[in-house]
Amino acid sequence: MIKLHDGGAYLVNGTTLVEDNAQAAAAINAAVGKNITKEEAAKNTIAYGILADHNTSGNMDKLKIKFDKLTSHDITFVGIIQTARASGLEKFPVPYVLTNCHNSLCAVGGTINEDDHMFGLTCAKKYGGVYVPPHQAVIHQYAREMLAGGGKMILGSDSHTRYGALGTMAMGEGGPELVKQLLNKTYDINMPKVVGVYMTGKPEKGVGPQDVALAIIGAVFANGYVNNKVMEFVGPGVSNLSADFRIGVDVMTTETTCLSSIWRTDDTIREFYDIHGRTEDYKELNPGQVTYYDGMIEVDLSKVKPMIAMPFHPSNTYTIEELNANLMDILDDCEKKALVSLDGAVDFTLKDKVRNGKLYVDQGIIAGCAGGGFENICDAADILKGASIGSDEFTLSVYPASMPVYMELVKNGAAATLMETGAILKTAFCGPCFGAGDTPSNNGFSIRHSTRNFPNREGSKLQSGQIASVALMDARSIAATAANKGYLTPATDMDVNYGKPKYHFDSNIYANRVFDSKGVADPEQEIKFGPNIKDWPAMSALPQNMVLKVVSEIHDPVTTTDELIPSGETSSYRSNPLGLAEFTLSRKDPAYVGRAKEIQKAQKAVEAGECPIDAVPELKDVMATVNEKFPEAGKGNIGFGSTIFAVKPGDGSAREQAASCQKVLGGWANIANEYATKRYRSNLINWGMLPFLIPEGELPFANGDYIFIPEVRKAVEERKTEFTAYVVKDNSLKEFTLKMGELTEDERTIILKGCLINYYRG
Fold first, then answer.
1. DSSP state, 203?
2. Residue 107: band (very low, low, confident or very high) from pLDDT cuts 50, 70, 90
């Protein structure tokens, strides 16, 4: 089904794989009649060509990328625009689309969600952007329908910004990276490695895009095979997939922790652009005659079976057949993993879902940028035709990804077919994907064609003793399970005639409702601020010497951004930096906020010209110990703040608040064995926080300890990658080394200034 090559590989004429070994040159010469170096062949990837077209540095090893378009949703665009305004924004320099698909519902916090929407509309008018009102489309579906273009690049402030199937290299990053683009700056990265995904065969009837995606994620996540690399989908199997199928696989590449994705394009994608009235945006993309990839994933589509990703990660994958055959053993393993993911905060079991030897689920959801596509929902309707979901606990909700998709489902009868079964159709909304919609009952088990199944991603609250869990599945197998009234069933067990109706896109929906400035700014437009929308607090520059208090210690194998700053109901407060910060680590370490605020008192005292020891009395002994070796430390040259340790933080969402909330509470650094994603590390840097590293298994400090880093500012100025640090404990200094990976010159300056806003203010 999935094969990973141990090293690199060449793709010859788009159909032949050649291992990168001693015989490779001869095999390539025999096939094409000429020699080609690895360096030349590496330039023949689709990704290399697109990156070269968007690079402004003149050096393909050190890229400075300018994107063609930007997109954000209503959890992120307020903070982005507020940061850009504070840094001198006058006009959006490229098309910038503000969608409203996360805080669409106004059930939490009174008016504040709609206040954010009005902020977005008035900013689109003032700065020359596009505003998509709530319920019209989820961010990525609108981008597919209206923004993507062959050979183009799009940057979005959502981690699932992936339009590679349409020939667009897209990346999801934290808000500060979009701020840089809004201020005509660049996205600076080293040339990423490119991993080929070579597809052959054709999916079995009943197998959908989520099945293929989960099979790939299960094979590559844990070993980091594509971490921060570009996945390039090639091979003859690509042409056996519809556009919707490719899109459904592509959006899930985010869960592999890759940087971006790109696919070869063909007449199927040309037809997609034709249907959407944008024929001119199609571009045929193919790798060169001989193309070198830094790794290769072979996918035999014909061997992919219906899959399920069990709680609490998209990589926790099994075939549904395997799960049903080994039900109690796999459920026992899930419960053991839950002890780590949930820290034993609640009792968790799935074994009580087994009825007469079968797994019963409480809820099915088909939604969002992954599940809400036209083809997914039509196939689900075909499976459910004439069936009933029953009148027991099981419920089924379907969220078409955009109003144009919804309208076509109404016109072709699929919507009526689903409604007749007892399913509920709802408007375009991302809530089920991040914990703000369709929360199950306590101990409930939900199967979802959405993007993530992290702890609490379904809306439960561990701190209140509430727990539910999500497994990821394809829409077809969710429909098959619904047809069997909640008993887990793979779609391949169903004898179904899939109608595959043709899609017709009606652009009038958007023409009648979406505000599009056509790039024309109106400087006279007043921005509408709700009472919850607050400016970023002032932030200090990096001090010469630093005292850090460790205020949280997390030993999970991976820490998600959801655990750093919860999604769900907290989303309503994302326009209020200090208000949102109160939720930091609330589900993982509820004592964090209090500890961080306590040491922050010392920094606030320094900034006010007062004595930090008066603010935090326990610093008296700490500074006495420090001053024995460093007598000059503390005389107007020291800062105080907090840090956390996590093994591998930052998996998941691009949301910058996972870092900025720590910063506004006085965070100066993170310490980790590695960072799960580039975007989380970038978020730390853009908020002036040091992304330190220590070797796995070495932990010279504990939660509550103080760390002193002498001349930390000088070390950053001198571009050092190793920092001498000391644990201050028991009236002694214990030396250890903190490391930090490569910083660009801009990143180094941002850290010295204290944050991106300070950097642009000068």
1. P
2. low
% of the chain with per-residue pLDDT over 70: 99
Mean pLDDT of the residues in the chain: 93
Closest by Cα among 720, 699, 682 to 646: 699
Quick one: CA dihedral 506, 508, 514, 520, positive or negative? positive
Stretch among 276-280, 592-596, 633-637, 733-737 having the lowest mean pLDDT: 633-637
Q: Domain coordinates of the chain in residue numbers?
A: 2-63+193-303, 67-188, 319-508, 545-761
With contact defined as beta carbons under 8 Å apart, do 9 and 297 qualify? Answer: no
Residue whose pair of structure tokens reads 């001693």 in the numeric block: 22
SS3 (DSSP) at 379: helix
Contact between residue 652 and residue 720 where contact means Cβ atoms under 8 Å apart = no
- Residue 183 pLDDT > 90: yes
Residue 154, SS3 per DSSP:
strand
Q: Tokens 């820490």 identify what position? A: 559
pLDDT, residue 261, reads 98
33-to-10, 28, 36, 40 alpha-carbon distances in Å: 15, 8, 10, 16
Task: Record the pTM.
Answer: 0.92
* C-alpha to C-alpha distance for 372 and 394, rounded to whole angstroms: 20
| Distance from the Cα of residue 107 to its chain's centroid | 25
Question: Does the pLDDT of residue 315 top 70, yes or no?
Answer: yes
Between CA 541 and CA 365 the distance in angstroms is 47
SS3 690: strand
**Among candidates 302, 123, 291, which has minimal Cα distance to 205?**
302
The reply to whether domains 67-188 and 545-761 share a CATH topology is no
The H or E element containing residue 183 is none
CA distance 593 to 583: 8
Selection from 307, 570, 312 nearest residue 445 by Cα: 312
- Which one-letter DSSP state was computed for residue 587? T
- Residue pLDDT, tens place only, 531-589: 888 888 989 999 999 999 999 999 988 898 888 888 766 777 778 888 889 989 988 89
- β pairing state of 96-99 and 153-156: unpaired
Q: Tokens representing 474?
A: 């394809």
Q: What is the band of 457 on the pLDDT scale with cuts at 50, 70, 90?
A: confident
Mean pLDDT of 684-692: 95
Structure tokens given for 307: 């899959």
Length of the chain: 762
Longest dimension (CA), the chain: 81
Q: Three-state DSSP class for 737?
A: strand
C-alpha to C-alpha distance for 480 and 483, rounded to whole angstroms: 5
CB 639 within 8 A of CB 540: yes
What does the pLDDT look like over 262-276, one tens digit per residue? 999 999 999 999 999
Q: Which of 34-38, 122-126, 447-451 has the lowest mean pLDDT?
A: 34-38
The pLDDT tens digits of the residues spanning 462-495 come to 777 888 889 999 999 999 999 999 999 999 999 9
Judge: domain 2-63+193-303, CATH 3.30.450.70: no
Which residues have CB under 8 Å from 484's CB, separation 6+? none
Alpha helices (runs of H) in 37-183, residue ranges in sequence order: 38-42, 46-54, 77-86, 112-127, 139-146, 175-182
| CATH superfamily ID and name for 319-508 | Aconitase, domain 3 (3.30.499.10)
- Residue 539 DSSP SS3: coil
Q: Quick one: pLDDT at residue 762?
A: 63
Residue type, 360: Y
pLDDT score for 378 = 98
Distances (CA, A) of 9 to 12, 265, 286: 10, 21, 17
- Domain at 545-761: CATH architecture: Alpha-Beta Barrel (3.20)
What is the 3-class SS of 206-236, one letter each residue? CCCHHHHHHHHHHHHCCCCCCCCCEEEEECH
Task: Tell me which fold the domain 67-188 belongs to.
Answer: Aconitase; domain 3 (3.30.499)
